[in-house]
Amino acid sequence: MSKLLMIFLFLVCSLRSFAQEVDTTIMGMHFMMDEVVIKSSKNGWDINAFIRRMKEDTTFYKAFLGLRMVPYTSDNEISFFDNKKKVTAHLENRTVQIMKGNCRTVTVVNEKVSGDYFDKKKEPRYYTGELFQNIFFRSRNNECGMSDEISKSHTAKGSLEKNKEQLKQLVFNPGSKVDGIPFIGKKASVFEENGVQQRYDFKIKFTQYNGEECYFFQAIPKEEYKDEVVYNQLDTWFRVSDYAIVARDYALSYHTMVYDFDVVMKVRLEKSGNRLLPSSIDYKGDWHVFSKKRERAQFNILFDY
Predict the structure, then answer these.
(1) What is the model's pTM?
(2) Do 155 and 164 contact (CB within 8 A), yes or no?
(3) Which has the closest alpha carbon to 89: 81, 97, 99?
(4) Predicted pLDDT at 142
């Protein structure tokens, strides 16, 4: 191949690559958009409405709240590790939730436990395990009046209940402002102008996910701020046909003198009836709170409706 031809091909590829993405600012957010998205916006697709929908989205969190309102079976597995990655505790079980009217009852079956997962009172020895159990597979018999309405106020009594609400907001409603967590303040507010919106670059592109056409939305911390933000990764796949979230991958971390955490999650969702609900959750996290032992945990949940 002649040098002239090689240079020509290089220039063509470079121009094509440049044409595939456009750098722009929309609603105060710095975006990279591929040519399919640009073409769609020129043909009438309202990209501003899409961005507003992304910033104001509550469907992801409502999907988790909706778990309290439908019958389902889930297979659950959680492990804890020491600093040498050796398993110190492990639990596997199956959750069966039965609905009678607007009341639910949760039964745990086929439970297998190893290591020091429970204390003598049959309570989780690990704080992460306690939260995991309370959030996903523990309820009072005939717990009624469940709702998927999202409340901004935390009226829960007791430190565990308040921490649960704050953690659920931070993990299941990523990018939103979460009150009550010391030292974080607005640093979790990815989409708010008075939060940390300017510390991120954003990307929208057209892609395929599990054979379905999707808009892929990504928030990427700018290099100079990567050690100052809470969310290190926030990737979301929106189905083109109805804007339903079908998948989300995200990582969050933060370090203070009082606590630190480093968490990676992958969540998949599906339509069940007229609801958007989780189909699987993969979690890997490292938590430490002052005066408590560091916890390294990994869990997986598979739902069946």
Answers:
(1) 0.83
(2) no
(3) 81
(4) 75
